[in-house]
Design a protein that fits this description.
Blueprint: E1 20-21, E2 25-26, E3 30-34, H1 41-48, E4 53-58, E5 78-79, H2 82-85, E6 91-94, H3 101-111, E7 115-117, H4 125-138, E8 142-144, H5 152-162, E9 169-177, H6 204-219, E10 225-233, E11 244-251, E12 254-261, E13 268-275, E14 278-283, E15 286-291, E16 294-299, H7 306-314, E17 320-321, H8 322-339
Parallel strand pairs: 3-4, 3-6, 4-5, 6-7, 7-8, 9-12
Antiparallel strand pairs: 1-2, 8-17, 9-13, 10-11, 11-12, 13-14, 14-15, 15-16
């Protein structure tokens, strides 16, 4: 694996590095935003509010960067190159198009800063592996914004599973959908790049499926995932990519189905885990466990993209890493091959 040659990075900082003074105490870490084209930018900014100071923004190369959230970033310096945005930063968030991840990752590596990157890491598995190798060689803390593993309702589901409350797992069904294509979310300047392969757009299954694959890997670490079949739905207007699809996986010995799409109304995040002692249903923030003795239900706040940002600032060890991103990319690529 090629790591590429680059000048020696500056002294590296831990995930949250702050200066302390006797009179003022710790200051909030300073975050640089690299790229503003990703639709989760607003979620990240809301999570940063009160926890970190956004010190600079580089909008990126995508021409629709007019989507910059001026309300939340009013008064923040907007610079013309990524390196300038990092001069006074303690950490970086990459919220660009997928196609810009490699170049922005290189700039962050040179600066020696911790970075949280939006998913996917790259447009395909080979690119993801190459970029992960370069960032790993640079020695910087790098994490992916896979937010489902930080949702309280799914963390509760994981505890019930690992505590044996479901018994031996028999089957799994996971779904992540929304009506974005129906509501013309991907037109104009909002997120049109996600339909463009030249900017790293892969379609609905890769966009949402990466979260579901990461969820399976997090729920049962070290359990192999094998793709058995895949069906992808074409975009209504045609073109590259898909509007969603379904994959049949072997999750260790357990059959698992994943379904994603941009044309489901109202959509949402759902998980069903069936076991020999009980069945667990998660729908948004609601959890229900049913056993032979009855059922109990819990309500949590729904999963939110900003959960990954909060974890990055407070508990980065639990974030999805580069190896997770590469593993997810391989599974998604196998789904695409199975559906071809």
């Amino acid at each position: 694996m090629s790591t590429g040659a680059s000048p020696a990075p500056r002294s590296r900082k831990p995930p949250v590095s702050v200066d302390r003074t006797p009179s003022e105490g710790p200051r909030r870490p300073r975050a640089a935003i690299l790229g503003t084209a990703h639709p989760h930018l607003g979620n990240h900014l809301r999570a940063l509010a009160g926890r970190a100071e956004v010190c600079a923004v580089y909008q990126g190369r995508y021409p629709a960067s007019a989507s910059l959230d001026h309300t939340r970033l009013r008064g923040v310096p907007v610079v013309t190159d990524a390196a300038s945005a990092l001069v006074h930063a303690d950490l970086a968030l990459i919220c660009s198009t997928t196609a810009e991840h490699s170049e922005l990752g290189a700039v962050v590596a040179q600066a020696g800063l911790p970075v949280l990157m939006e998913k996917p890491l790259a447009a395909d598995a080979a690119e993801a592996e190459e970029l992960a190798g370069r960032l790993t060689a640079a020695g910087i803390p790098a994490a992916m914004a896979m937010f489902l593993r930080h949702a309280p309702v799914l963390r509760r589901a994981r505890r019930l599973l690992t505590d044996g409350r479901l018994g031996r797992l028999i089957a799994c069904d996971a779904r992540f959908t929304h009506p974005g294509l129906l509501e013309r979310y991907f037109t104009g300047t909002t997120a049109a790049w996600m339909l463009s392969p030249s900017w790293g757009g892969r379609g609905a299954f890769a966009d949402l499926g990466v979260h579901l694959v990461d969820l399976l890997r997090w729920l049962r670490p070290d359990t192999p995932i094998r793709v058995r079949a895949g069906v992808l739905s074409p975009l209504p207007a045609g073109g590259a990519g898909d509007a969603g699809g379904t994959a049949l996986l072997e999750w260790g010995p357990v059959p698992a189905t994943l379904h994603t799409g941009w044309t489901s109304c109202p959509g949402g995040i759902r998980l069903v885990l069936e076991g020999t002692r009980g069945t667990l249903h998660v729908n948004g923030g609601h959890l229900v466990l049913t056993t032979a003795k009855g059922s109990f239900a819990e309500s949590h706040r729904p999963p939110a993209a900003g959960d990954a940002t909060t974890a990055f600032l407070s508990n980065p060890g639990e974030l999805a890493g580069l190896h997770d991103a590469v593993a997810c990319a391989r599974v998604l690529e196998a789904v695409g091959e199975a559906a071809a």
